[in-house]
TrEMBL record:
Protein name from the UniProt record: Interleukin 31
UniProt cross-references to InterPro entries, sorted A to Z: IL-31
Originating gene: Il31
Species the sequence originates in: Mus musculus
Superkingdom of origin organism: Eukaryota
Length: 179
């Protein structure tokens, strides 16, 4: 209970009295600067994920996204090109994070199904879910082309993996920037 307003839109159970002096104002500025990410919730505890755990998770996502793309492009889609008409939102560290994570997860789930589980995106999906403040939205992704055609499925999988890998690499390049 109490008359305290939540310090963020994330339901972490952490509350701040915004009328008192102290560290509340700098904390709120920091939350606004970094966005949703410092206030992200872990699913198991409903508590904020630490900055160190967030960085570790992002590093794991970067490496795994690159590995998934490289392995698939060499072993299953050699010589194929990505379909530029398919657009995956980039992974972001801003207020659009929940929406972007939800769309990315939906695409990665579709990748797993279309590849008949030869591309295991389970860890990536789990890591994305763990750093999402709320449960990701349940979205249905349509695949352009004929899903009965192996070629169309492979192009879709290749495109999603390539775009996700590129976005994570771009995030790495921006890692050291500040607000």
């Amino acid at each position: 209970g109490g008359g305290h307003a939540p310090s963020s839109r994330c339901h972490t159970g952490i509350r701040a009295d915004t009328t008192s002096a102290g560290t509340t104002k700098p904390t709120l500025v920091l939350l606004c600067c970094i966005g949703t990410w410092l206030a992200t919730c872990s699913l198991s505890f409903g508590a904020p994920i630490s900055k160190e755990d967030l960085r570790t998770t992002i590093d794991l996502l970067k490496q795994e996204s690159q590995d998934l793309y490289n392995n698939y492009s060499i072993k299953q889609a050699s010589g194929m090109s990505a379909d530029e008409s398919i657009q995956l939102p980039c992974f972001s560290l801003d207020r659009e994070a929940l929406t972007n994570i939800s769309v990315i997860i939906a695409h990665l789930e579709k990748v797993k199904v279309l590849s008949e589980n030869t591309v295991d995106t389970s860890w990536v999906i789990r890591w994305l879910t763990n750093i999402s403040c709320f449960n990701p939205l349940n979205l249905n992704i349509s695949v352009p082309g004929n899903t009965d055609e192996s070629y169309d499925c492979k192009v879709f999988v290749l495109t999603v993996l390539k775009q996700f890998s590129n976005c994570m690499a771009e995030l790495q390049a921006k890692d050291n920037t500040t607000c």
